[in-house]
Amino acid sequence: MDLKERTGETRRASEPGGKAAPETANRAETCQTDAKLKIYFLPNLMTAGNLFCGFVALTKIVQADLTDNNFTDIRVALLFILLACIFDLFDGRLARMGGQESPFGREFDSLADIISFGVAPAFLVHRIVLRDVFAPLPQVGWFIASIYLVCGAWRLARFNCLAAQAGTGGGKDFLGFPIPAAAGMVASLTWLLMWMGDHGWLDERFNKTPWRFALPIILVFLSLMMVSEVKYPTFKTFDLKATRTFTKTLVAVLLIGSIVIFQEKMLILVLPLFFTAYLIYGFIRPHVSRRIRREIEDRDDDDLDDDDAV
C-alpha cells in the first residue's frame, strides 16, 4: 500500500461517513450524559426512606391476620404510609433549599411514589374492604383497586412530562390532586374509622361497620381527582425563615402543642381534616379572593397570576 492509499484511508476514517466517527461521537455523548447525571445524597436519601416505608407498608398488609378484628399489622402499615408522606415532603424541600434538583431525583421520586402512594393504598383498601365485599366476584375488587393505581401512575407520568417541558423541575401549582395527598387521605381516614370503631363511636367494629364501604368510594373519587385539571398549590414558596403574622404563629403553636399533649388522639383527628381541607381547597380556590389566597399559599401577587402547573 503506497502513501496515497494510506492517506485516503485515514481521511475516510475521520470523515462523518467513516467507521471511527460514530464511535468517537458515541464516546463523547456518553461522557456528556455522565456529566449531566447528578445524584445528590440527602434528597435521594429521603426518597429512599419514602420507598422503604412503602415496602414495609406492603409487607405488613400482606402479613396481616384480620381474624378476630386484629388490625395491628394494618395500623403499622398506615403509619408507614403516613411516614412516607413525611419523607416525600422533605426530599423535594431539601433539594430546592440546596439547589440540588435534578432529573434523576425527579424520576427516583416518582418510582418511590408509585409504590408508597399508589400500590400500598390500593392494596390496603382491597385487603380490608374490597376482598370481602366482592368475595363471589374477586375480579371486581381487583379492578376497583387498580383504577386508583393506574390513575396515580398517570398522574406521576404527567407531572414528569410537564416538569421536563418547563425545564425548572416543576411549577407553582399541581395539576390534579397530588398522589401523596391522596394516599395520606386514604390512610388517615382508615385510621380514623378503626379508632372510632375501637372506642364505640361507630355502631360496630371496623370489620363489621358499613362505614368502611366509604373507603372504596373515596378511592375511586381520588383516582378521578388525580387525573383531573383542578389546580392545587405546591407550597414550594413557603419559607420557614420568613416573618409570620401573629395569627399564623399562634395557630401553629396551638396546633403543635395540641399534638404534643394529646398525641395519637389529636393526630387521628387532625390528619383527615388536613387532607380533606386540601382536597376541597382545590375546588373553592378559584373563588377565593387574592388576599386570602396570598395568606394561605404564602405567595406574591405575581405568582398568583402564573399559569404554571405540573
State the separation between the terminal residues, measured CA to CA.
Answer: 64 Å
Helix/strand class? mainly alpha
Poorly predicted runs: 3-7, 9-20, 30-35
Counted by DSSP, the helix tally is 12
Order of helices and strands: HHHHHHEHHEHHHH
Number of extended strands: 2
User: Averaging pLDDT over every residue, what do you get?
Assistant: 81
Largest sheet: 2 strands, antiparallel
The rough form would be described as: globular
CATH architecture assignment: Up-down Bundle
Range of helix content: over 70%
- The CATH topology label is Four Helix Bundle (Hemerythrin (Met), subunit A)
Strand content: under 5%
Instruction: Give me the CATH superfamily.
Output: CDP-alcohol phosphotransferase transmembrane (TM) domain
How many individual domains?
A: 1
- Per CATH, the class reads Mainly Alpha
Gyration radius (Cα, Å) is 25 Å
Helices, strands, pairings?
Elements: H1 3-14, H2 20-36, H3 41-63, H4 72-97, H5 103-133, H6 138-166, E1 173-175, H7 179-198, H8 214-226, E2 231-233, H9 246-262, H10 264-284, H11 290-297, H12 301-305
Helix pairs in contact: 3-4, 3-5, 4-5, 4-7, 5-6, 5-7, 6-8, 7-8, 7-10, 9-10
What is shown here, in short?
This protein has 310 residues and is mainly alpha-helical.
